[in-house]
Amino acid sequence: MNFSYSEKVVTLQKKVINFMEEYVYPNEKVYQEQLKQQKTRWSDIPPIMDELKEKAKENGLWNLFLPESEYGAGLTNLEYAPLCEIMGRSVIGPEVFNCNAPDTGNMEVLVRYGTEIQKKQWLEPLLAGEIRSCFSMTEPDVASSDATNINTSIRRDGDEFVINGRKWWSSGAGDPRCKIAIVMGKNDPTAPSYEQQSMILVPLDTPGVKIERLLPVFGYDDAPHGHAEIVYENVRVPAENILWEEGKGFAIAQGRLGPGRIHHCMRLIGLAERALEDLSKRVLSRTAFGKKIAEQGVVQEWIADSRIEIEQARLLTLKAAYKMDTVGNKEAKTEIAMIKVVAPNMALRVLDRAIQAFGAAGVSDDFNLAYHWANARTLRLADGPDEVHRRQIAKLELRKYQSADLAAIH
Amino acid sequence: MNFSYSEKVVTLQKKVINFMEEYVYPNEKVYQEQLKQQKTRWSDIPPIMDELKEKAKENGLWNLFLPESEYGAGLTNLEYAPLCEIMGRSVIGPEVFNCNAPDTGNMEVLVRYGTEIQKKQWLEPLLAGEIRSCFSMTEPDVASSDATNINTSIRRDGDEFVINGRKWWSSGAGDPRCKIAIVMGKNDPTAPSYEQQSMILVPLDTPGVKIERLLPVFGYDDAPHGHAEIVYENVRVPAENILWEEGKGFAIAQGRLGPGRIHHCMRLIGLAERALEDLSKRVLSRTAFGKKIAEQGVVQEWIADSRIEIEQARLLTLKAAYKMDTVGNKEAKTEIAMIKVVAPNMALRVLDRAIQAFGAAGVSDDFNLAYHWANARTLRLADGPDEVHRRQIAKLELRKYQSADLAAIH
Amino acid sequence: MNFSYSEKVVTLQKKVINFMEEYVYPNEKVYQEQLKQQKTRWSDIPPIMDELKEKAKENGLWNLFLPESEYGAGLTNLEYAPLCEIMGRSVIGPEVFNCNAPDTGNMEVLVRYGTEIQKKQWLEPLLAGEIRSCFSMTEPDVASSDATNINTSIRRDGDEFVINGRKWWSSGAGDPRCKIAIVMGKNDPTAPSYEQQSMILVPLDTPGVKIERLLPVFGYDDAPHGHAEIVYENVRVPAENILWEEGKGFAIAQGRLGPGRIHHCMRLIGLAERALEDLSKRVLSRTAFGKKIAEQGVVQEWIADSRIEIEQARLLTLKAAYKMDTVGNKEAKTEIAMIKVVAPNMALRVLDRAIQAFGAAGVSDDFNLAYHWANARTLRLADGPDEVHRRQIAKLELRKYQSADLAAIH
Amino acid sequence: MNFSYSEKVVTLQKKVINFMEEYVYPNEKVYQEQLKQQKTRWSDIPPIMDELKEKAKENGLWNLFLPESEYGAGLTNLEYAPLCEIMGRSVIGPEVFNCNAPDTGNMEVLVRYGTEIQKKQWLEPLLAGEIRSCFSMTEPDVASSDATNINTSIRRDGDEFVINGRKWWSSGAGDPRCKIAIVMGKNDPTAPSYEQQSMILVPLDTPGVKIERLLPVFGYDDAPHGHAEIVYENVRVPAENILWEEGKGFAIAQGRLGPGRIHHCMRLIGLAERALEDLSKRVLSRTAFGKKIAEQGVVQEWIADSRIEIEQARLLTLKAAYKMDTVGNKEAKTEIAMIKVVAPNMALRVLDRAIQAFGAAGVSDDFNLAYHWANARTLRLADGPDEVHRRQIAKLELRKYQSADLAAIH
């Protein structure tokens, strides 16, 4: 297990750090300002974003996420991890480098399971940062933590598939550039539990696709990205839009979620590092009860625990990345499940301590803490709630003893 | 320590419960809808509010909060507790009964420390629910957890006081009906630490008072209430606007914060009860992995821990109320500090479990959980952060041993 | 819900406090020394114990625990609570007042379910403090947290019952004065689940009763009390030794465990109070890094959290006692389950903080902290593990909504 | 940062695992039995120990701990970590391989700072496993968490040093083979704070050295190892017994504690792994409430959290080892402080869950859980309490910002 960074990665890391300092952090407020000045928060993308994307391309900091693919930068997951972490320090960061969710996960799916035509039509403009995509899986009417509950139907009808169902939390669908959804549904409710589902490509301008509303997260609209509730009503797409083949929805989901999850974790580590940095600076700069807040023992415990938790989360994430690279996403599933539990909870604790240290300023928008917190909170639910991952980890642990002599506890 | 409810209280409790069921809960969405339909979210109060207030007055459910005063309903803190808890179940509840923060705290100040003229001018319209008020204490430039840090100056100049300073988190100042601020500042920086401060009444239409912006809380604007940043620039008010007398700001703050804090705690218990109710219904109504979510052991632990924590927080709050009633707010300071730590943290845990049980729906606005959570989060900071209260509790505990034989640990 | 103490209780409380100060605390070390000087730690009871018991009788502090019975002091559970708490501050305290486990629980059983002959033979010498008793329920071979797992057989054979089985954690059976066991077993494995069990009185000198060993708890032998593993091999007792009647074992257990559990909780509150007192004195008397340890913010948080947790646990225990007194043990089952979870966990946290504050001295026997901790740790298991109680609390909570409209989450 | 194991390490790991399975685990009870059969628990070492040591030597599994030294096996800290972890799974394990505390730490001191004569006399028999040693630092009369509090005097008198003081928790001094103590004391109370202390070699048979008693840990005597309280009364040793030179006591302590601490952490990870294994087997083999305990969601959360916490602690320990190997113990101090907080707390949580899963069996001596727990509990205090390490971590974190622009929170 070698976590050393190659010279290539060290160079890229420096470049990403410098880019963030020079271009991203100073433009976070600009982005928000431009967003406010538009007709609505959904009507267009703040122009600064395209400028930043151009800069990132010029600097060779583009599509760094794709391992094992001719399309990407040729980085392994382990190599991508320290870069993704830095991008994740800013909410606008990942998009600048074309490394944002859910597009990276969707692009991974297209690389792995897409036909040449599908790649031409959707992967290429996604890689170019020209369009964006969403992932339509969760449904409001069922406990979607159990994916077998999913109800949307994808029914074959001649050369077409007909899609009917209601989805929500299709994140990114609020973006005017979002052109394509990957929709998960059931094509055959009579098949074995994990072969009933399919995934299919649905252009958002297909008749019958209706974005009913954009859902807030703790009061934030996440514009212009947005979390959409979408109704698919007799939506017809050509049969060749199916991904891989019918009945493979679950298999694709398993493949997709590994990289998607680890990217989230990397970004959360970045968010947490930034929060700890903010916390440290704040408590060094303010005085209460006759001494710097940084000298309060309680605050020092917050700082120490934060440092400890971040370090541990990062190391476990690197281990997961290493396993994905060396034995594959499937074999790495315990590690992926572990970081999916660890990283959001760690980030929430660090952010909460930072909020407390900032006082009321911490819950406002003068700093990023509250927004980052809300963001991190969704990740205890998105891509599977903590409880489902913990159960999975326990089952894999218990499996080790399935043929053990249980009486032999020494 | 008698926590039994008198017949009067039992009757009022039933009335408040029924009122909430009949009028308040069904109008929460109406209120939000009316708010959206106005020109801006700050331009007016949703008309349903006045209708509900009239109903509450008609039902004799008005100004129930004021103990020991001819103005109120003659209830003790202990008697008010179970009523306040029920009102607190809805964010619009307290205002309906004219029992909302920060007005109740401000009215308590006026009852205790106001002159007859001050009462006539400000207390009476507040009691009538005609105007609203704000409390201007926290400042953006200093750690306001240490009130001696407060910088705003209140300088005597002939028959007037001149106020200069910047305040924020003056909650309620966004409300078009808000007419009066109680401002805390320093009149004499050379006096002993706790005698430098004064409180003064400043009508919001006084020249030099400028609301610069309204601060969000985790993405929520809390309109039309709002959390204002206010600049006081050479604001002149008549000398008789001083509360009590110069140098008494700290003493008033101590007196004011007791009731204000316990009211917050009562409401938080109500919020938590409602969240536990919501959680329970939700997990009974959804199925995952082949059984009702309510049958999952992990979820049952959430429910049990929530019930345990709510019960304990309520009992401690009742004890604090009982002590305030029997030995006074000052003697009850340990208990008040304890519930100020306990109640928000308890509510946050219960709400967080409920959010987790609701899945992604929990972070949206389809239910109240996320908004209530944001609300409760501010209460780990407002009226003193947890850390300051814990320190106070510890000091009072340690004081018990100041003349003890420390070697005699038996 | 009236938690006020009557004059009678206040007087008793003072008497118990004084008695503890004068006689019990100073003799804790004496008791341990006398124990060491005996041939074995199990051969006899340190003579100081009988002296103290005589003193307690003389002072009218004897058998204070029995509510609703001509045998006791006529105190309700609520009245007994503050007295039991003080007794519980010392591990030798409860026995001094004849209020120790498991005898009080066993005496309650005999009062409620015993025949006149049984009372004469066993209850009276127990009340007189002449003999002691044990409760033989838990079995080593099954998960006894589920009482239906219990395997010991109690088979009718003519005028006798024949008992066969292996029990452990029959606490108190190491005591040379222990004369009688209440044994739980199955008389009819074909009956409905909760009617298969019986309880029966088994004198320890009956042929076939064999104490195989005395189990340690975290290295402590708890001599001369002791936790016995007992084999019952073809043990024959007269049929009239049955308690209540065949098949009532479960019902008696339910009745017995309520009072037994709440007594444990009261004592744990006493232990925790004493630990907090010790912690406070210790940190006031030692200096590190240039200031008293009591001035460290982290230590102050320990003290504050301890005070908060003790207060809450005590109030909940009082509420449980109040409900037992007013609506009966069965109706109070939620409250009893709640305190059974709360009190041991609270005490463990407080004790752990005290241990940490004492440094290495805390894990030794120079102070009582480590021993008390071990003691408290068993109470997360004895009389049902936390997890079983939490499940029970959740089920009772969910039952509130069994006929509710689950869609109506307002 | 390369955590991959070389072939050499993989081979050693297999050998240690096999050795533990074949010789150590099966002899744990034998060791305890032999200890009981001796005249006293302190009179001799159970003979099985020497047999096992011979076996280990024969297998080339001896003194694996010493990095950078001709005396050891030539393993780095990183290479030793996985081996030490496995040894640590058994309390008797480390001694079998001559890798036990406090001898490894003391041997490191002698290797680094010892003169040739000192090495000849003490290091060589220690390396041979013929004698044992203790470390006499902590004092009962002061808060030893602050090492500047240490009071013992080491006064020069001609060609000798005269030592006066009282020490306790000199672990290992109970062992009849323990021949030498490293004593820390003050030679010059007027020097700068961190140059007042010296360390000196004191043979235990020197006149004036008196072991007053052996301290228990949660009821365990840890015989024949033992934790001694030692009085040094006018103890005279030759001047050449000083380690390094006068005034270097603190510097040596810093150097010594790094390796000592990380070894403890490695062993704790082993203890925790074994506890999780035991827990898993136990819950797979027992049934309650109609299903295997392993199927309970709550128990599954325990397993998952344990796996997560163990993995993270191990990775952080490896990182610390890696830094010690590559940049030195001093540069690795943040990482060492972090694992010193993480590992004991992690092990305590895992062990506590295992105890809970075992029910009452868990607190007894039928399994190792309670004893391991007590052992782990001391390690939140030994070599510095958690709070001191956290403070150190915070200070190092805050130091990063000492020349930062504190207003620039982006």
From TrEMBL, chains A, B, C, D:
List the protein's name.
Answer: Acyl-CoA dehydrogenase
Q: Name one GO cellular component term.
A: cytoplasm
Annotated organism of origin: Neobacillus bataviensis LMG 21833
Top-level taxon: Bacteria
* Acyl-CoA oxidase/dehydrogenase middle domain residues: 134-234
Q: Name one GO biological process term.
A: fatty acid beta-oxidation using acyl-CoA dehydrogenase
Q: Which Pfam families match?
A: Acyl-CoA_dh_1, Acyl-CoA_dh_M, Acyl-CoA_dh_N
Q: Describe the protein's quaternary organization and the partners it interacts with.
A: Homodimer.
Lineage, opening ranks: Bacteria, Bacillati, Bacillota, Bacilli, Bacillales
Q: Which InterPro entries match?
A: Acyl-CoA_dehydrogenase (IPR050741), Acyl-CoA_Oxase/DH_mid-dom (IPR006091), Acyl-CoA_Oxase/DH_mid-dom_sf (IPR046373), AcylCo_DH-like_C (IPR036250), AcylCo_DH/oxidase_C (IPR009075), AcylCoA_DH/ox_N (IPR013786), AcylCoA_DH/ox_N_sf (IPR037069), AcylCoA_DH/oxidase_NM_dom_sf (IPR009100)
